Amino acid sequence: MSSISRRSLLGASAASSVAAFSGLDLGAATSGDDAGFKLGVASYSLRKFSRAEAIKMIQRLGLKYVNIKSYHLPLDSTPDQIREARKEFEDAGLTIVGGGNMDFHKDDEADIRHKFEYARLAGMPLLVCAPTKITLPKLPKFVEEYNIKIAVHNHGPKDNFPAPQDALKILQDMDPRCGVCVDVGHTAEAGVKPLDAIRASGSRMLDVHIKDMRVFGDVNSLCDVGDGVLPIADIFHELRKMGYTASVNLEYEINEDDPFLGMARSYAYMHGVLAGLKG
User: Fold this and answer.
1) When comparing pLDDT for 171 and 277, which is higher?
2) Residue 8's domain is classified under what CATH number?
3) What is the DSSP string of the chain?
4) Taking 50 as the threshold, does the pLDDT of residue 20 lie above it?
5) Per-residue pLDDT tens for 173-230?
6) In Å, how far are 240, 241, 271 from 2, measured between CA atoms?
7) Which of 66, 94, 103, 198 shows a CA-CA span of 20 to 30 A to 72?
8) Please, are residues 155 and 144 in contact by the beta-carbon 8 Å criterion?
9) First vs last C-alpha separation in the chain
10) What domain count does the chain have?
11) The domain containing residue 206 runs over which residues?
12) Which of 36-40, 207-211, 269-273 has the lowest mean pLDDT?
């Protein structure tokens, strides 16, 4: 079967899957561990919603894994507020796989320590982060002290690290708990093929942000996963081939006021891809 026809088949399957759940409660039909993958959500996707609303939407999507953005747990929260927020996520049956994306733009160790302490209290084993070339070399000390991993998130041409390979140049001699979060959309925006970035990252790939776009490299053409040109099935196949065991988190950046249906379609497509891998 050609890649085009296979993609069309999976897309049709995804659409029918969403249509089948007229109540849009996908919990009974999906699993966060398809084909061994931890399929989760970056809560940035739900940035226009309160923590309580976001948690309910994640549950309705049938997910178990969440990377918490500060919209749902502000960085200036008190220790008690952080513990309470953590309890809300965990009581809802969600596993916190990380936090961020979090800026480390200030060359200030007190600021860095505050964010690692926040992560510790929140039960975040990993921080998806946006450091500078000055602050990144200062993070391993805190990684070792707190035993919290860091994953540098690439953000395209205007960023300190346009593609994962740009961060890897600095990370290569650091503690193995210092790695990258491969954002496949921003990787394409940087003119790099996501599969090339994934292969180059190897064991330094500690997180993945999944999304899709209709025109390769154009972040203004972001769309539901499965409706674009990024090789989603090939990405999952490569991750499986590499023995990747960390999370693959949907970072849904469009339709911010009403993202649920598009997110549901994206997950349905990915579940179809993962079912194919299992088969």
Assistant:
1) 171
2) 3.20.20.150
3) --HHHHHHHHHHHHHHHHHH-TT---TTT--TTGGG-EEEEEGGGGTTS-HHHHHHHHHHTT--EEEE-TTSS-TT--HHHHHHHHHHHHHTT-EEEEEEEEEE-S--HHHHHHHHHHHHHHT-SEEEEEE-TTTGGGSHHHHHHHT-EEEEEP--TTSSSSSHHHHHHHHTTS-TTEEEEEEHHHHHHTT--HHHHHHHHGGGEEEEEE-EESSTT-GGGEESTTSSSS-HHHHHHHHHHHT--SEEEE---S-TTS-HHHHHHHHHHHHHHHHHHH-
4) no
5) 999 999 999 999 999 999 999 999 999 999 999 999 999 999 999 999 999 999 999 9
6) 21, 21, 20
7) 198
8) no
9) 15
10) 1
11) 3-278
12) 36-40
Res. 17: pLDDT tops 90: no
Assigned token pair, 177: 């708990």
Whose tokens are 């049938």? That residue is: 62
| Residue for token pair 């849009």 | 24
CA distance 148 to 150: 7
